[in-house]
Amino acid sequence: MSKKSETKAQKKQQMETKSKKSKQMRTLMMATGGVFLLLLIIVGLVSFSGNNGGDGLNVPYAGQPVQGDANAPITITEFGDFKCPSCKAFTEEYFPYIKRDYIDKGIAKFTFLNNPILGPDSYTAAAAGEAIYHQNEKAFWPFLEAVYKHQGDENQQWATQEFLVNLAKQEKLEIDYEKLAQDLKAGTFDKKVREDEAFAVNSGITSTPTLLINGKLVQNPFDYNEIKQLIAEELKGPQENEQK
Ligand code: CA
Question: What burial class does residue 154 get, using C-beta atoms within 10 Å of its C-beta: 0-12 exposed, 13-18 middle, 19+ buried?
């Protein structure tokens, strides 16, 4: 083989190797591109569903205490336990900001569901809340605040029927105290408490307080910036978020 033809043959081989390599590269790029495209689609779907409520929990709002404008675009839901010290802290220290910035401005309404996790008297207190709500919807919120104000040790059973009825009297709630005592004794509203609890359990809500904004979980209810951000996202809606 002459030097010339040898070079030619080598070149040909090189070309073949090159084209083979570039073919492999193209295949790889196509595969990578495909994966990337798929990722983009997934991310897009997730962020879309995140903005249009697709991944939000379907909270049973009917028959739950609510404060604020019924037509407010944002619904904030708290899952709470009357005996829980963190719920007391949330209501006393953080809720006033939510009220000032969102509820009083008609941007959000606020609703409460029971998630009794601390003991048998968590259920008693929750049943008292339900009984009061079913007598006078507006009396629920001052009752909740009063229980937190007089909250005892979470490891002791202090939220007895007697304590709760006396507290309602002491706070001069506009309800029939005798009926409250009877409802507690008869367990009239235990079912309502269990319904809230079942929803929480089925939704994987295990701690209190747990906050949802339009059904979407707030990672840290004590992070006001997270709450503000989630509300802002919900207010933007899916279309504006997609244009970003
Ligand atoms: Ca309820």
Answer: middle
96 alpha carbon to ligand 1 midpoint, in Å?
22
User: What pTM value is reported for the model?
Assistant: 0.76
Residues 10, 88 within the same domain: no
Structure confidence by residue, pLDDT tens digits, 203-217: 999 999 999 999 999
Q: Quote the ligand 1 centre to 202 CA distance (angstroms).
A: 15
Query: What is the overall mean pLDDT for the chain?
Result: 86
* Distance between Cα 114 and ligand 1 center (Å): 6
**Residue type at 125?**
A
Contact between 186 and 124 (Cβ < 8 Å): no
Report CA(200)–ligand 1 centroid distance (Å).
Answer: 11
Which CATH number covers residue 104? 3.40.30.10
Same-domain status, 73 and 43: no
Residue 163's domain comprises 66-238
